[in-house]
Design brief:
Strand content: 35-45%
Number of domains: 2
Strand order of the largest sheet: 1-2-3-4-5-6-7-15
Bound molecules: pyrrole-2-carboxylate
CATH class of the largest domain: Alpha Beta
Radius of gyration: 19 Å
Length: 314
Amino acid sequence: MIRVIDSHTGGEPTRVVVSGGPDLGGGPVAQQCERFRREFDWFRSAVVNEPRGWDAMVGALLCPTSEPECSTGVIFFNNVGPLGMCVHGTIGLGVTLGYLGQGTGRQRIETNVGIVELELLESNRVEVQNVASYRLAKDVEVDVPGIGIVIGDIAWGGNWFFLINDHNQHVHYENIEDLTDYSWKVRQTLAANGITGSDGGEIDHIELFSTSEQEGVNSKNFVLCPGREYDRSPCGTGTSAKLACLAADSKLSEGQTWHQAGITGSVFEGEIAKVDDYPISERVMPTIRGTAYITADSQLVLQEDDPLRTGIKG
Ligand code: PYC
């Protein structure tokens, strides 16, 4: 029996595995994540893929932490594999910990890509201090078959993003199919041309921006995630990457709040702080605030004789 608590953060689902997960042997979360990827991919698929989940669902497996100042470790994963960081998932985790009566104070959490902090501000509102974020390259040009020249920035926000401001796409919920096709072609072209993050990591998140009609909102985005599913929320790691690009272009400073809407209209607030000896134009520490709600508290059952017990794609 696997106990899971489901929530949604601005429409994007998170399923936190609170018990019944695999024993990953302890150690740093990045090491546990590698073991999860190698030996327990069936578990990932069973939890988030159909018939128990669906392609948009992000899982969060609580695991031991090797960092004395952290309260827990967590591995985020989606329909195709583990993620780096996941801010909407951390907001969901904050609300889930509150639901379990473990949500008091500011907590440090060890993830696959570093330590983050979360704080449950009110019953459903969570603040997350993400990992340090930065822009790796500005105005990278790619010739995308069927589209033409596309120009974007490469930035790290806990995952690798390609951020595109100039495109001919209508960033609107009714245009999801076209936005998905466009972004998927860009992603494939980046991979085909060997354009990667600084560690050779695949740029597996594509982010398109436009203006927003919502009052007080600075920008609206569409974010395509690694498994070809779009983020229903404004994507917190994508918002972090955006904040890093804004800071690099001197368009955002410490003390200012950026309001980022996602494709469904839900909004994250973001702020930046300086990181150690780096100028703010080179590296930022993003803080993101968002709202999540619990949607289910349930047990997953994997019956021995079920041919689809590890998921349709498992
Ligand atoms: O909020 O960081 C995020 C995220 C990543 C993938 C889906 N959501």
